Amino acid sequence: LRTYCSPLNYLLYTKNLINSPLCTCGLIENTDHYLFICSSYTEQRDIMLQKIRELNIQPTVNTLLFGDPLLSIEINTSLFLIVQDYIIASKRFK
Question: Which CA distances in Å does 31 have to 1, 70, 75, 88?
Fold first, then answer.
């Protein structure tokens, strides 16, 4: 996700590797869609966002993927692990 080399359909489509950028839910499957919108991962996302809210962080794609230099190393590490748990729980990249 960080290097734009994930198997999300939009990224594969822009590299002419698949015929459609659409997710199984019918919307364009990009990083924002995967992290914040897709109905296929609502339960996993709710868990992730609840944990992020407990850290008092406003989640954005950049913050979720790269952390925030204004946050402590401990908070950034927690954020990284929360997102990692979401990715694993979603089973999108199996």
Answer: 7, 23, 22, 15
Q: Rounded to an integer, what distance in angstroms lies between the CA atom of residue 18 and that of residue 66?
A: 27
Taking only the tens place, the pLDDT of each residue in 39-68 is 999 999 999 999 999 999 999 999 999 999
| Cα-based torsion angle of the residue sequence 70, 72, 74, 76 in order, rounded to the nearest 10 degrees | 10
Residues 1, 31 contacting (CB under 8 angstroms): yes
Q: Which two tokens stand for residue 65?
A: 């993927």
8 Å CB contact between 28 and 21: yes
Could you tell me the pTM of the whole model?
A: 0.93
Q: Is residue 16 left, alpha or beta, with left meaning phi > 0 and alpha meaning psi from -120 to 50?
A: left
- Tokens 């950034």 belong to 76
SS3 category, 19: coil
